[in-house]
Amino acid sequence: MLKSLITSETKIKLLLKFFLNPKNNGYLRQLSNEFNESTNGIRVELNKLEEAKILVSEFKGRNKIYKANSSHPLFNELRNIVLKSTGIDKVISNIINKVGDVKTAFIRGDYAVGKDSGLIDLVIVGKDLNNREITRVKNKTEKLINRKISILLLTPEEYKNLKSNFDKEPTFVLLEGKKK
Exposed (0-12), middle (13-18) or buried (19+): which is 164, by Cβ within 10 Å? Predict the structure, then answer.
């Protein structure tokens, strides 16, 4: 979807990086290595996005660190477009909201760091989750968004035991602390 609206592949990668998970940040050389592109092309797009105030930056040592400008008037709209273009909005509405008593849900892996790799790694924590419904809705959602979804189901007790491991890796929280 984004490719039909935005012709610059680099700009699309930057929007995904910073708006899939607004906690993400990056500097020029890191982004160049991550995207496997020249620093000049990335610099041009970073400058355009910063000039439009869509991204903000600050210096840390010699590095200029960029991140999404959450106070920009279009921040929520841009984020929603990015979520819809990757299908994460469908994951939220189709899976998380329909499978039972979900307490917490988050994405880890590539999407948590802003990479559209085609595999959404979803962790769902809850009680009395309907496995048959999860499989049915997962398969339907995968076809709808043209991406694979890997789901790890945990009870609250299992999550409590594994939480320190999840805290060590980037995650993108979709739902936290829901009570039915």
Answer: exposed
